[in-house]
Amino acid sequence: MKLSRHTKVAAAVAGAASVALLASACSSGGGTDDAASDEPITLTITTFGTFGYDDLYEQYMEENPNITIEATNIDTGGNARTDAFTKIAAGSGLSDIVAIEEGWLGSIMEVSDTFVDLRDFGIEDRSGDWVDWKYAQATDADGRVIGYGTDIGPEGLCYNGVLFEEAGLPSDRAEVAELIDGDWEHFFDVGRDYQEATGKAWYDHSGFVWNAMVNQLDEGYYTADGDLNVEGNAELQERFELLGAATEDGLSAAQAAWDWNGGKSFVDGTFATFVCPGWMLGVVQGNTEAGGGDATTGWDFADVFPGGAANWGGAFLAVPETSEHQAAAAALADWLTQPEQQVAQFEAAGTFPSTVGAQDELAANPTPNEFFNDAPVGEILAGRSVGVVAQFKGPDDSVIQENVFGPPLQKLDRGEVSTQEAWDEAIVLLDELVG
Amino acid sequence: MTSTLTPPTGTGSGDDDRPPRESRLTWRQRVSRFDVKASPYAYVAPFFLLFGIVGLFPLAYTFWVSLFDWDLLKGQGDFVGMDNFWAILNDRFFWNSIRNTISIFLLSAIPQLAMALLLAYLLDQGLRAKTFWRMSILLPYVVTPVAVAIIFSSVFNEADGLVNNLLNLVGIPDQQWKHDTFLSHIAIASMVNWRWTGYNTLILLAAMQAVPRDLYESAAIDGAGAARRFFSVTIPSIRPTLIFVVITATIGGLQIFTEPRLFDVSNAGGIGGADRQFQTTVLFMWELAFFRRDFGEASAVAWLLFLLIVAFGLVNFLLSRRVATGDARGGRRAARRAARKGADA
């Protein structure tokens, strides 16, 4: 009997709590749209991955005492996608500022009127700040601009100098850049030498390499006009076969992405190279440290990328129409993407800036990154961003990357299928999931 | 209930005095009568109102959505009738997800209920520090499924997870817990079992404690051993509770989502392994709705799953009733016999 009384009390408490929640949910709201006023405003912002904004929030709140920032950071871009999509579908719940990833920007563009036209808040005056393709990416078919560009993802090569040395390869980053310089076939051939010398894998898993290979093309899964561009795309298939041959030769470590055996695979020499857009540097460091490694593990960053310049990812800050403080939100997003703040963001998280001013700043003042063997990563990335042009991303780009090509590549990594079978399976999946 | 309590009315009753007598009732009496008749409905109304809003309406609306081309972001499109249902019924991934769901359900529900019964039986014996044991068994239930999934995902890690390390100790090589279909089902079922066994145990325990002790005594005097008493007295006596537990386990088991979703972090699209080897039906629905953005087909999956759960629930209900009743007759007879013997002696 005693138990049941406890239960009743618990139920009463739970009931009261839920009523309180409801009440508070209802009371949030109201407020004005006037950024100039000193009325206290709470702005919510949702980011993902390692965004490096925490100190900037503090600074902004200090400079603008009437603003309180409530930040949410979602672990991966994939989960942020689900979060944003669900809330767009529900018609409510989006925070005042939403970070949008380039990979699913194509889907967002189909409902771009969910987000406010930032030209109303003066983004046009700043259009020259960004590299022009970044600004163009955030512009929809009607000419509305829905996002302040944060970072871009120029890709360089992360490599493990210690492992390179053990295999008899040069470990100095300039020599490595010279060694790797060339097309993908050359990159895989160097990998074959490494594999012969050590018996170990060259790259972590095929999915990321494939992503880089596709992103590098002028047109990827879609043509620039928005038509599906996979079946019968000789260029794409040729690259797939190159990757497949390398994987069949044992160059892939068949790792589970975003897990890498809890980061240990970055430490125990499972693989020697890793495709690294700027924002990936934080991921590599985080996983190496999670796996028990540190700067002495040997990771380094070379100013080279197979096949030339490539971009992977990058984000935008958008303000949804449902925001009750659109002007204040736009002001904060504007501030966060100013060159000065982008440099601070780069220093905190390694995300490479999308504004020309910040890029020049990083190129001019190379600061060594302790974790990456003191590599001047800002300067290197500035070099890697030369010639980068973002590819058109269609509405189902992320589905094709994750659910169409992802699974066959994993099976290829594990040696369960041949290259031809993997390609055929991807085409079947494409028909079933997207077609 | 109401029909038996209310006196029959109308011409068939043959009672001519009735209508005038009713009109003779005072206002107060009529209010009081109304109160007696109507109040119970008013008391239960909040539940049905809530159920209507959060249960029935979404169910109906989901069906409405399933009749359209419905993009997650763009919203309602063209009316397509039952096309979404046909598309799903012809989708090999739907059937794959059904197979996975049922496999995981069987691997979890059966051992879980057997274990819960056994544990409840043990806890029903005179133990010291009863509350301690009972609360300890419920502890896993307090942990959120997300935490359970993340921990077990690490435990079943193929490269050097706890399970494979333990297996290596006894000379068994590493097992492919995340790639092999059957092994991945076992791994996911073990998460479900870990979390739900204690909960079911407590419910069964509560029912067992309501079994009159003299039944056991009589059975014991009659020469029934512990096993015989368990199967012939305990099980039949807790039949309604057992049915309840089986049905809730069925509903829960067929809706499994969190565990397979988090078991494989590298597939963002929610496909449950490279070969969809552990993609359950709810996970398939999630993929359709939130990754592939096809809300119409996802709603069709939701409805098909609903029908499947109802069907499974019915089969379970009938089965568990039959099993329990079969035993119950024998059990009651034995108990009655025992009681009679006791009285004779």
TrEMBL record, chain A:
Residues 1-25 form the signal peptide. SUPFAM superfamilies: Periplasmic binding protein-like II. It holds the Pfam family SBP_bac_8. Transmembrane segments: none annotated. The keyword Signal applies. It comes from Agromyces rhizosphaerae. This is Sugar ABC transporter substrate-binding protein. Keywords: Signal.
UniProtKB/TrEMBL annotation, chain B:
Residues 1-10 have a biased composition (Low complexity). Its main location: membrane. It is found in: Cell membrane. The keyword Manganese does not apply. The keyword Ubl conjugation does not apply. The chain crosses the membrane at residues 41-64, 102-123, 135-156, 182-207, 238-257, 300-319. Pfam families: BPD_transp_1. GO terms for biological process: transmembrane transport. It is a multi-pass membrane protein. Residues 98-316 form the ABC transmembrane type-1 domain. Keywords: Cell membrane, Membrane, Transmembrane, Transmembrane helix, Transport. One of its GO terms (cellular component) is plasma membrane. Belongs to the binding-protein-dependent transport system permease family. This is Sugar ABC transporter permease. It comes from Agromyces rhizosphaerae. The gene is cebF.
